[in-house]
Amino acid sequence: MYKIAVIPGDGTGPEVVREGLKVLEAAGAKFGFRYETVHYDFGGDRYLRTGETLPDSALEELRGFDAIYLGAIGHPDVKPGILEKGILLRIRFELDQYVNLRPVKLYPGVETPLKDKGPEHIDFVVVRENTEGLYTGSGGFLKRGTPDEIAIQESINTRKGVERCVRFAFEYARKRNKQKKVTLCGKTNVLTYAFDLWERVFHEVGEKDYPDIQRDYAHVDATVMWMVKNPEWFDVIVTDNMFGDIITDLGAMIQGGMGIAAGGNINPEGTSMFEPIGGSAPKYTGKNMINPLAAICAAGMMLETLGETEAAQAIDQAVATVCSRHLKSLAAGQMGYTTSEVGDLVCRYIA
Ligand code: IPM
Ligand code: MN
To answer: What's the 62 CA to ligand 2 centre distance in angstroms?
Structure first.
């Protein structure tokens, strides 16, 4: 019996999570796993009502779950940063979800903006470091608001943090068993401390423990170029938090958009959290127009991580079928189906 915490969150989060849970139920019925869910109302509305983002007690409770399923965090009436730092980043950090795993996979029938590229060219994953880098909040102001103002934002990279992330990437390449290649995406020509560490750890660990995995390196600016021109070169990309954030939005676009892009915040020894990577899309809220496939794919990743491999594969297969046989587009309002109809279709193919 799995214990799953559900945080529907803001905007369209609740709508897409509802569809994801529907699919989870269909998968449970078919593959015979059981679970219970506990819903939490963290997000912008709660914050505006109570001034609270994430109570400490809740954080402790979350550690007791097998997984967390998240919709979206971000509210138009709340200053940027408060909810993101107070809820999303806080969970990632405090639960030590040190990898943000983001598959970039083009399903058959889905349109990519890349000319002459198809599903055979776009199938890789980004392993984004998720607890360090520029995201730690290290730094500060001096003489703020004066003409002599100084703002410092430091990138924190620890040997331990880099090593566990790099190891995860090598393990993942082995498990995928495709090109068996890991590309380190960095900026060794300018960030000569941070990526010096990354590069040394990458080669040390790779040479010693993963001789079967090919090692490749690309600067981040070249990485985005190749993602557009030759995405088939990539199998597993490993990178730091900030670069990973940026390149995975490009990744989402080449796989057909935010409507299908899912991610997992993984702590292999603890509680992981799964989410569609797009935002709360306030303008579509409550309209039953948003694409729930990203949230559904996130539920699939959750099952994969929980060890329900067959169920995860069935969801993946059903999503592929819905894309190729049904949806006119992955964009909100242009799918030819409503949010709930897309969820129903996925359930039908799972059953
Ligand atoms: C993401 C988001 C977050 C991030 C924001 C909302 C803090 O863009 O999950 O990629 O930068 O990590
Ligand atoms: Mn992002």
So the answer is: 23
> Is the CB of 245 inside a 6 Å radius of any atom of ligand 1?
yes
* 277 Cβ closer than 6 Å to some ligand 1 atom: yes
Closest ligand, as measured to the CA of 137? 1
Please report the atom of ligand 1 found closest to the CA of residue 88: 7
CATH architecture of 1-110+265-351: 3-Layer(aba) Sandwich (3.40)
Residue-level pLDDT at 235:
98
**262-266 β-sheet, strand order:** 35-39, 2-9, 67-72, 272-276, 262-266, 99-105, 123-129, 236-239, 181-186, 214-219
- Is the sign of the CA dihedral 74, 78, 80, 86 positive or negative? negative
How far is the C-alpha of 231 from the C-alpha of 117, rounded, in Å? 9
| Domain edges within the chain | 1-110+265-351, 112-255
Whose Cα sits closest to atom 8 in ligand 1?
245
In ligand 1, the atom with minimum distance to the C-alpha of 89 is 7
Say what the pLDDT of residue 135 is.
Answer: 97
pTM of the model: 0.97
pLDDT level of residue 119 (50, 70, 90 thresholds) = very high
Q: What pLDDT is recorded for position 234?
A: 98
CATH code: domain 112-255 is 3.40.718.10
Average pLDDT over residues 178-200: 98
